[in-house]
Amino acid sequence: MTTGHIHTPLAPETLLAALFDTPPEPRHCGGLTLASGALLGHPLDCFVLHGSDCTSTDHATLLEFLATPRTAARPLMGIFACGPAADEDGHLLERQALLLQRLAAARGQAPYLSIVLTQQTGTLAALAALADLTLVARPVGSLALHGPNAMLEARALVFDADALGGPAALRHQSGLALRSCRSTLEALRHARLALPLLSSLQSPVPASAAQPAQALATLLPDTRGAFDCRELVDTLTDAGSLLAWHDDDDLAVATGIARLRGRTFGIVSNRPQRHAGHLGLAELRRIERFLQLCRIRRLPVLSLIDTGGLLPALPDTDADLLATWLRVLDAWQALETPRISIVPRLALGAGALSMGLAPATPRHIRIDWQGAGIQAGGTFADARPAAQPAGPYHLLTAPADCPLAVQTALDLLQA
Prior knowledge:
- By secondary structure, the chain is of the alpha/beta class.
- Helices cover about 35% and strands about 25% of the residues.
- The protein has a 7-stranded mixed sheet with strand order 1-2-3-5-7-9-11, sandwiched between helices. It has a 7-stranded mixed sheet with strand order 12-13-14-15-16-18-21, sandwiched between helices. Strands 17-19-20 form a 3-stranded mixed sheet.
- Helix 2 (about 55-65) runs parallel beside helix 4 (about 90-110), helix 4 (about 90-110) packs parallel to helix 5 (about 120-130) and helix 11 (about 280-295) packs parallel to helix 12 (about 320-335).
């Protein structure tokens, strides 16, 4: 069975030249290439694992690279274009454990992005999955703890590599922050868009909104029809700044990062076109993982809530749904950064709590549109109109005035 381990579409020098502003001077160490330079004016350290095998020597050199004080405070990019790990001196497992620790610590200090160009299994897959954003290049890139050959030899079971750890499996089952890219160059392009957003939380020059505020007045077709949350996001965020953190339209929640009046925000939004905004296990996993990113990167969060609650769970997944839902609530509580929640139409039950609906506080400002319904459970007909604001941190606004309300919220959060 062919696993597609060996697939290096571009040489390390070519990858680095396409990534950095000016081609850096790389340092080659067997199957590992190291480089430092600038990406869109931001400092960046990068390592490329390539070749048919990733050896223990490569791991030792990478450990030394990550241990330098110069690297610790700089954003990091990892490009995985290698085959399986080869243990020629018996110390590979210990070095992989140290690498996991070092990368986790490095991610806590500065952004870490990864690009996966080949099939990665075991600890190498974990090293790539630790990133704030993992970019998987089709058709070969995948992440899994076990490859198809290992499953065949151990249990005589035949698995497709994509089913074990391809982009579809990662999006719907793991909740990883991940984008599936059609090519290596597309993955590099997304990396160039993402790093400045994570590296600089405040833009020196706030940009204008992508769409005029007047568009909000006609955004909702009626009280029940689905609308595109992207239109609302584009009206509120700075033009051209939105980068979706996931690239599929199969789930009822979307996440991304964008600039809001010059400041980088994490965006969590319902997608009423899918299951009327109801959330299932896959949606909750996505929210949980993204809130971890926002907590580590200390990103403020903008949540757009339009949900009818949680999807009914199958008997064999009901316990998982409850446990994941509780973890999502804990993730919202763990955020120490400012939050803005917007309820344009409907917020019902546990689904609304999963999207960050909570009492308004000086660090959490809630904006309800006139006519929006909020209810602990039940149906749209049972939902009561949003109450009059109880204080300066709970705003009630007409749809067309929502951008002005968001600006007011930003002023209150900065005060």
